[in-house]
Amino acid sequence: MIYVGIDVSKVKHDCFISNSDGEVLFNAFTIANNRDGFNELYQKIGSVMEDATKVKVGLKATGHYSYNLLGYIIDKGLPAYVINPLHTNLYRKSLSLRQTKTDKVDARTIASMLMSDVNLKSYSDTSYHNEELKSLTRYRFDKVKERAKLKTSVSRLVCILFPELEKLVPTLHMASVYALLSEFPGAKQVANAHLTRLTNLLSEASKGRYGKDTAITFREAARASIGSIMPAKSLELKHTIKLIQELDSEIDEIENEI
Question: What is the three-class DSSP state of 44?
């Protein structure tokens, strides 16, 4: 069995390769964090292995810095193990309390851990792609939170510019209301809107649910509105709605990937 220990960092990785007899096949060496460096590592592994299933590659978990190398190793069909840095430190100290911590020492320690088989679980191709799924899920969660904050801003701005509107619709956050406010961002603008234009806009955005009667209701409410006339707030409202719509598209795209 061939054991490969790798201490991962941002710009380079320190490696160590030994076998089941404890023989050092390649003493601690450093590769660049790029394609040439990855190929150099694989060439060294390939020069001493007979069967990919007889190789164990261990990487110290360092967040996103290990992700590309891990993917490369998995693509090459080599069994990979991601090891917690705390686990590595404890194991190194158990070998020798006087041993100084260096990246090269940790690479050797990881190889030794693989050899001793201290309850390590291999990082499969499924695990790699599950991490992709987790990343997408976290990204979606962040975008949903961002959208929720923007929706709160819309509610605040409508309360200033056209407070009566909220009582006339099930929710402000629907396509027809966003279409209305994107073109007429305030009571004054709605009050001055041409009825035909207002009717067509609402009908199209609501897919026929709202028509002339609703347009008349909105315009009458706007003409009697206590809403403030604030061009800066109106501009903010239009831009906020646009951002929400862009986020809607992003979230849909993420969900399709998931």
Answer: helix
